[in-house]
Amino acid sequence: MLPVTRDQRSKAKAVNFGIAYGQGAFGLSQNLGIPRAEAKQIIDDYFAQFPGVRNYMDEMIGYCRTNGYIKTLMGRRRYLPDITSANNTVRAQAERIAINAPMQGTAADIIKVAMVNIHRELKQRRMKSKLLLQVHDELVFDAHNSETEELKVLVRDRMQGAMQLSVPLVVDMGVGKNWLQAH
What we know:
183 residues; globular; 7 helices; two-stranded antiparallel sheet; mainly alpha
C-alpha cells in the first residue's frame, strides 16, 4: 500500500465530507478545482461504491421528518422545523443539517468528553502542561518540556477512548514551538 500524501488526504476529506453533507457537483467542483462533470462522476461513483452513505442520509432525513429533530450519539437534539417546509430551498437546507448534525454534533460531544477527561487527568497528575484551546477536532496544549512524552500518551489515550464507537478514533499529533510548527 502506498502512503497517502497530505494533498490526497485533503481531497479525500473534501469528497467524503462534501458528499455526506449534501454538497452537489457544483460545490465539489469548486472545492477541488475540477470540471463539474468530473465532480458529478466522482459523486455518482462514490454512491455506487458506498451505498450505505446514501442509506444513512435518507434515514437521517426520514427520522427528522418523523420526529422534528435529529440527535447525536449522546442524545443531544437539534430541532429542525423546516424539514417539512413547502419551500424547496428551505427544506433542502434543513435536510443537509439533518444529515450533518448527528456527525458534527457527535464529534463535538466526543471532543468535549476528551477535554474534560484530559483536564481532570492533568490535575490529578499535577502536571504543568495546560490545555489551551480547541479548534474543531484539535486540541492545543502548552506542553511543559519535561512532560511532552507523558502528555502525548495521555492525550492520545483520552481522545481515542472518549467514546466507544464501531470504528476506531484515530488521533494524529504534532509537536512544535507553536501551532504552525506542530502541523
